[in-house]
Each structure stands twice: as structure tokens, then as C-alpha cells.
């Protein structure tokens, strides 16, 4: 049933606007968006759709096609009000600072908990829909900052700006080189198919409890490195200059910052490698990114390491964990002909280690959020 019909069934009125926004995978540039780095994600083909209509009583009602029993009604928006799943939508309305009320129906097809940014997809679809419906005229950069604020201050997750930016600004066929300092972007052609390759997304189905605390703790370490070194951000120091100042930092803080400064360099090197169609080099950079996230930043987990190691052992030219870590997804770049073997190998190795069975996706770079 189309979302407009579902909306009518749920709220007894026609929706006034329908919009969609995609999830993302990050090719490279992990855990550096909150350190003003460059990142290289792309929007995936899985999207969240929302249908929205105004209400005259100033209230907010949220329903989800995926949770038909759970219609949420909220009188006023204050951070953390509403059920957890509804907060991403409510928080976005709150961060937009608009007068209520609204009926909002969500139809989400970005796998939840897979590290593919289903939350950003939801926030961005609501933001684009209301921006259009009320003629707010906000730019995509403004909407990225607003949706990040929704997640930081309403939901309470101290995320950076990458996921929302690429969900809003991604383009079909391109990875998005995003400067997280000023949100300027460059579209980087990402056509692995023409090189006979495919980017496999492996959802480990693991969700470790560390997620929230671990993320905030890593962020705090980067801030500590910046404060101790007396610099504006980790963006403003070269790898060599950082290494030269090792003695000024405690060992853990040093390693966290070392991940950040080297990962920033790897993003730029990946852009160069893509421009030269040098996918072997891209693969090496993905591998090095994973090593850094596992050993220096310590945000990987046994399931992610197993997926990455097995993919490589079965012939992938590069693989790494993506997103915040402690579970979620990994990516593997491999010859298309090897993908079935890699999937089988990972499924078998997960079985042997007693992990939940993994899920596999693949996606070409897709279009960012828009009204439909
Ligand atoms: C999560 C956050 C992003 C980013 C990544 C790690 O997805 O939402 O802002 O920090 O983790 O790169």
C-alpha cells in the first residue's frame, strides 16, 4: 500500500508532503567528523520515507509502518520526550523550531542497528519534508546542522555531522568528500562496477552495549588531545608534527589522536587513488583504516574483525568496519565474481564462532534526501 494511503488509514486525512532520505556507508574517514576532518561516505539505496500533514491542535502524532501498534502522541516537545524510536522525528521538528502540530508516518527501509544510519535517514526525511511544507527555505547545510542538533540535544547521542550531511547531500554515482569543518563538498566518482568490483556491506548483527558510552569517550579523548596540544582541532596538525609531540600526551590519548590524524590522511589518499582508478591502493587504505580503528581507536569488536579478516582471506582487496563501531557493519571491496564465496566464507566463520548469522547488502551510491 502506498504511504499516502497508509497515512490516510492512520490519521484520517491526506498527507501534505512526502519525502525520503537514504542511509549511508562510509567508504573511509571514520571517527573524524567530530574532529573537523574530511570524510568520504556515500548515500545507499535504502531509504526512509515520511508522510506529513499539519494538525490544528498543536500536538505531534507519530506512527510507523513497521510498528503498527505504537502510535505516539506528544503534547509539547522537550528533549527526550516520546518513545525512543520516535525521538529522531520529534527531535528534528524541535530543532527546526517550528510551531506544531504534525501527523508523521514513517516507512523505514534502512536496516535498524546495522550502522547504516537509519537514524540520520529518519531525521533528514522529516527535515526535508517540513522545510518544503512550511517553505522554510533552509539550505542543505543548515538542515545538516539542525538534524545533528536533533540527535545531539533531543535524542542525546553526541554524533558528528557526517551521517546527516551525506543523507542530505549525497548524489547518485558519487561518494561525497565532505569537509566537516565548513560542510563544503566535492562529488567523487565511485564506479567500482566498471572495474569489475563490488562493495559488499556485511551487517554483523552485533550490537555491543559499549556503543553510547564508548563513542562519547572516544570523542572526549580527541578533545583532550586538542586541548593538551593547544591546537584548534586534529585537522590542524600533520601526522609528522603529531608524532613529534607524542611525549606531551598520555598513551591512550596519543593513540586516539594518532588514529584521527592518520585517518584524515587516508581519506585524501583514497581520493587520489580513486582518481587514478587504483583500487588496489584503495583496498590497502581500507585495510589500514580497519587496523587503526581496531588497535589505536579500539572501536572494533570480534564480529567486525572476523568479517574483515575472512573477507580478506577469501580474496577481498580491502575491508574495514564502518560507522561508530562496537558492532554494526563492515564493508569489503572485492571482484564481483568473488562476492558469493566471500559471503559463504563469512557465514561459515560466524557459525563456527557462535555469532549470529550476518546479513549482506550491496548498494551503489544513491541520491540524497528529497521530496517525492
Ligand atoms: C556514527 C556517528 C557519525 C560518525 C561515525 C564514525 O555514525 O553518527 O557522526 O562519527 O559514527 O565515523
Architecture of the largest domain, CATH level 2? 2-Layer Sandwich
Which residue ranges are poorly predicted, with pLDDT under 50 across at least 5 consecutive positions?
Answer: none
Described by the principal axes of the CA atoms, the overall outline is globular
Provide the domain count: 2
CATH topology of the largest domain: Ribosomal Protein S5, domain 2
**Major beta sheet, specifics?**
8 strands, mixed
Number of continuous helical runs: 11
Mean of the pLDDT scores? 96
**Strand content of the residues, in percent?**
15-25%
Percentage of residues assigned to helices: 40-55%
Rg, alpha carbons: 21 Å
Distance between the termini: 16 Å
Which kinds of small molecule does this entry bind, naming each only once?
Answer: alpha-D-galactopyranose
Derived from helix and strand composition plus strand pairing, the structural class reads alpha+beta
Q: What is the chain-wise order of helices and strands?
A: HEEEEHEHHHEEEHHHHHEEHEE
Q: Give the assembly state of these chains.
A: single chain
- CATH top level of the largest domain? Alpha Beta
- Tally of strands: 12
Amino acid at each position: 500500500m502506498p504511504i499516502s494511503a497508509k497515512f490516510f488509514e492512520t490519521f484520517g486525512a491526506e498527507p501534505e508532503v512526502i519525502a525520503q532520505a537514504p542511509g549511508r556507508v562510509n567508504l573511509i574517514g571514520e571517527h573524524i567528523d567530530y574532529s573537523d576532518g574530511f570524510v568520504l561516505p556515500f548515500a545507499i539505496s535504502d531509504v526512509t520515507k515520511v508522510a506529513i500533514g499539519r494538525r490544528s491542535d498543536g500536538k505531534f502524532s507519530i506512527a510507523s509502518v513497521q510498528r503498527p501498534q505504537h502510535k505516539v502522541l506528544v503534547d509539547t516537545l522537550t528533549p527526550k520526550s516520546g518513545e525512543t524510536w520516535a525521538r529522531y522525528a520529534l527531535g528534528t521538528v524541535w530543532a527546526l523550531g517550528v510551531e506544531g502540530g504534525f501527523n508523521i508516518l514513517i516507512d523505514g527501509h534502512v536496516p535498524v542497528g546495522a550502522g547504516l544510519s537509519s537514524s540520520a535517514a529518519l531525521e533528514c526525511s522529516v527535515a526535508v519534508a517540513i522545510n518544503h511544507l512550511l517553505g522554510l527555505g533552509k539550505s542543505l547545510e543548515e538542515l545538516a546542522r539542525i538534524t545533528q542538533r536533533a540527535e545531539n540535544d533531543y535524542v542525546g547521542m553526541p554524533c558528528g555531522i557526517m551521517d546527516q550531511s551525506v543523507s542530505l547531500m549525497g548524489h547518485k554515482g558519487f561518494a561525497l568528500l565532505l569537509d566537516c569543518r565548513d560542510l563544503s563538498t566535492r562529488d567523487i566518482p565511485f564506479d567500482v562496477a566498471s572495474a569489475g568490483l563490488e562493495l559488499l556491506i556485511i551487517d554483523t548483527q552485533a550490537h555491543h552495549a559499549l556503543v553510547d558510552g564508548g563513542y562519547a569517550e572516544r570523542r572526549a579523548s580527541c578533545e583532550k588531545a586538542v586541548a593538551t596540544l593547544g591546537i584548534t582541532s586534529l585537522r590542524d596538525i600533520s601526522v609528522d608534527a603529531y608524532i613529534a609531540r607524542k611525549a606531551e600526551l598520555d598513551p591512550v590519548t596519543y593513540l586516539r589522536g594518532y588514529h584521527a590524524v592518520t585517518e584524515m590522511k587516508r581519506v585524501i589518499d583514497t581520493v587520489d587513488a580513486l582518481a587514478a582508478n587504483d583500487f588496489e591502493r584503495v583496498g590497502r587504505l581500507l585495510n589500514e583504516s580497519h587496523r587503526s580503528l581496531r588497535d589505536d581507536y579500539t572501536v572494533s569488536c570480534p564480529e567486525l574483525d572476523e568479517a574483515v579478516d575472512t573477507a580478506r582471506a577469501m580474496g577481498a582487496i580491502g575491508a574495514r568496519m564502518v560507522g561508530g563501531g562496537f558492532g554494526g557493519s563492515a564493508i569489503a571491496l572485492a571482484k564481483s565474481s568473488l562476492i558469493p564465496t566471500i559471503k559463504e566464507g563469512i557465514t561459515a566463520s560466524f557459525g563456527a564462532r557462535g555469532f549470529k548469522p550476518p546479513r549482506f547488502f550491496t548498494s551503489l551510491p544513491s541520491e540524497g534526501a528529497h521530496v517525492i
